[in-house]
Amino acid sequence: MKMRRILVTFLVVAAMLTVALAVVYGLRWRAARARTTSSEPAQAAPAQARGDVTIDPRRQQLIGVRTVRVARISTTPRLRTVGVVRYDETRLTDVNLKLEGWIHDLYVNYTGQFVRRGQPLFTIYSPDLLGTENEYLLALKTRDQLQQSQIPEARTRADQLVDAARERLRLWDLPTEQIRALEQTRQAQPTVTFRSPTDGFVIDKQAIAGMHVMPGQSLYKLVDLSVVWIEADVYEAEIQRIALGSPATVTIEAYPADRFPARVIYIYPTMDERTRTVKVRFSLANRVGRLKPGMFATAELRGTGRAGLVVPVNAVLDSGPEQIVFVAEGDGYFEPRKVKLGHRLDDTIEIVEGLKEGEDVATGATFFLDSESQLRASLQGYEALPNQSAAPSQPANVDITFRTIPDPPKTGDNQFEVVVKDASGKPIDDADVSVQLFMPAMPTMNMPPMRSETKLNRAGGGAYRGSGQVMMAGRWDVTVTVARGSQRLGAKQLPVMVR
Question: The CATH number of 389-499 is which of 3.40.50.300, 2.60.40.1930, 2.40.30.170, 3.40.50.620?
Fold first, then answer.
C-alpha cells in the first residue's frame, strides 16, 4: 500500500513536470513565432536568453554552489608543445676534397662512428697533389742554391716560388705537418693522409677504399651532438606568448624522470597553412649524448606575462557561441554575464572582458544555474513587451512581506499575497512580482527537483495577489522577486511547509 502511494505520487509529479516543460517550450515557440511574424527584418538567431537566478543558502549548499573572488594576478601562461630532437645545423661538417684522386687507405669505415678532431680518416693518391709536392721540393732546392747568390732579385724570386708552391698545397687542404715533413725529408709522398676537422659522429659515409673521387664530392658528414635542437609546432593563437630567449623545460619519453633545460633560439617566419602552426626551435646541451636526433620531446615554457583577472576554470560555462559566468550579487542573487576568455593557467583561466576585480562568481553547479537562468528567461520573455529595452539590474532597498491563503499552504491550489514597500514605508504599486517555489531532488525516492513560478496581479496599496499550485506536501523554498520593467528592485527567500 505504501509503495502504491509512492508510485502514484511519483507519476503525478512526473506528469506535472511534463506539463511544465511543455508550457516552457510552448512559450518559447510562441515568442519565436511572434518575432518571426514581426515587421522587423530577419536576423541571425540570437544566443540562448538567460535570466537572473535567486537561490537561498540552503539550496546553494545542497547543489554545491560556491563562490570565489575574481583576483588580479600575474598571468604568466604555461605552454606545452611537442617536437622532435634535431641536429644543430651549425655543428654539421661536410668532408670533401678539392682535388681529384683515389682513396688508398680507409680508417673510418662505418656510419655512426665517433671521431676526434685530427683523427685520420683516409689516405689518397692524387697525381695533381704529387706533382705539386715535387714542384714544392724543386722550389726549396732552388732557394737553397741561390742563398749565396750576389743577385738580390734572384733570392727574392726563389723565396716567392717556395711560398707559391706551399700555398697551393695549403689550399688543397694538405695538413701543415705533412708540408713540414716535405721540407725536412725532401721526399714527395705518393699518398697523403686527411684528418677529421672536428669532433663528431659520422652520420653519412660515402668513402670506399679504392674509390675514385672528384673535387667537391662529399665523403663524410660529421655532426657534433654536444648541443642539439628541438623543433616544435606551436599553434597560431599561442605564438604571441613566446619570445626569443624564453627558458623552457624539456622531457623525453625515454627519460620520463629527467628534466632538460632549454631556451628558444629561433621562431620561424612562416606558418604551416595546413596545420596552422609555427615552428619554434629550442637549443639544449647534450654533453653526455643521451638525446638522440629523431626522439620525440615535450617542451614546457612560460610565455610573456602580464597582470590579468582570473577565475577557476569550473566557474565558466562554455556553451559554444558564448562563455558565461554567474556573478554573485549577494542575498543568493546570481547574474549571468558574458565574458571573453584569455589564456588558461593550470586550473584557472584569464578573463579579458566582462568581470571586475573583487567581484564574486559561482563555481560548481554552473549547469544547474544555467538551466534555472534559461527557465526564468523563457517565462519572463513571454510577457516582455516587444520594444522593451534591457537595463542593468540595480537592486533597491524594499520591504517584502509574503503570506499564503490558507496558512500554512496545502497541496493543490493556494492564494499568494505579497506586500511591497520602499525604504520609507510607502507602498509600491507599479512593480512586477513573481513567486517561485522549489523543492530539491530526493534521490532516495528517485524524484527529480520540482519548481513552479506564479506571476502575481496588482491589487493596490502595494499588494499583489495570485493563485499558484503546490504539487506535493513537504518543505518548499520560496523566492519572491520584485522588479520594475527590466530593473530588479529586490528579492526575498523563505521556507514554507506544505500540508
Answer: 2.60.40.1930
